[in-house]
Design brief:
With 87 residues, the chain is of the alpha+beta class. It has one domain. It contains 1 helix and 4 strands; from the N terminus they run E-E-H-E-E. A two-stranded antiparallel sheet has the order 1-2. Strands 3-4 form a two-stranded antiparallel ribbon.
């Protein structure tokens, strides 16, 4: 089985203030549905993945075993859809 990584939709881009803007979750879901509808693939699993921002200055990247969030500080989490399939 050949493994492929496909990115659906647009990558995040800066807004007028230089902050990254992401697609909505609904847009990501629509892109995943379009992908499945327009290709002859067998869907094995669909996941909603939610990850903390491990690249903050106070974090240790992917080697960090835990992420703390405190009420007084903002915490950024990233959510996306992953479709496992075979052709």
């Amino acid at each position: 089985m050949r493994k492929q990584i496909l990115s659906l939709g647009k990558p995040p881009g800066p807004d007028s203030f230089g902050r990254l803007r992401y697609e909505s979750f609904a847009a990501a879901l629509h892109a995943a549905n379009e992908f499945v509808s327009n290709r002859s693939v067998k869907v094995l699993n669909v996941e909603t993945v939610v990850l903390p921002n491990v690249w903050d200055d106070d974090e240790q990247g992917t080697a960090d075993p835990s992420n703390k969030t405190l009420a007084d500080f903002a915490s950024t989490w990233h959510q996306f859809i992953r479709v496992w399939y075979e052709q």
